[in-house]
Each structure stands twice: as C-alpha cells, then as structure tokens.
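**Fold tokens**
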Amino acid sequence: MMRLRRASAIAALSLFARAATASAECAWVLWNEVNRDDGGIVWIAVQAEAVKGECDVAVKGKVKDAASEGAMVRGNVIRPLALPLTYRFVCLPDTVDPRGPKGK
C-alpha cells in the first residue's frame, strides 16, 4: 500500500513538473490586428517576448506611441486620423496563430 502511494505521488509530481516547465518555456508574441474599413483583417507579428508581462509592457508602449502621434485611442484600439483602418495590439502565446490554420 505504501509503495502505491509513493508511486502515485511521484507520478503526480512528475506531471506537475512537466506542466510547469511547459508554461515557463512558452514565449509571447505581440500581434497587430489591422482592421480595414472595408472589412478586411490582417494580422502582423510584431515582436516576441519571453514572458507575458514584457509583452503587455510592449502593448502599452505601442499604444502610448500612437496616442502621441495624434491617433484616436480607446483601450488598445487605435484609429489613425489619416488612414481608413483601426488596429489593436494583442499578446498571445507563441502556440497561438490568430491567422488560423495553414492550408496545404
């Protein structure tokens, strides 16, 4: 009975260690979602960061830069004054591609 508990505990710790390692290895990508007034959407990868907090800081910097250039800003949605589009910056894990699955 004691060996079964010990084996279960070791298995549980092993799974926990793998999950922790996987989340620690995940990078974050700063994406720019460009929405044209005609309905077209384009996703552009801007930069990658090691942790989500660094990516969030990059979003704030991009929004601040856009506001200082005179764009209308609401949250992280930006409307440049002279262009027929809006865009927003979004941080996603590097395992997520917002452009969708790639075809063959």
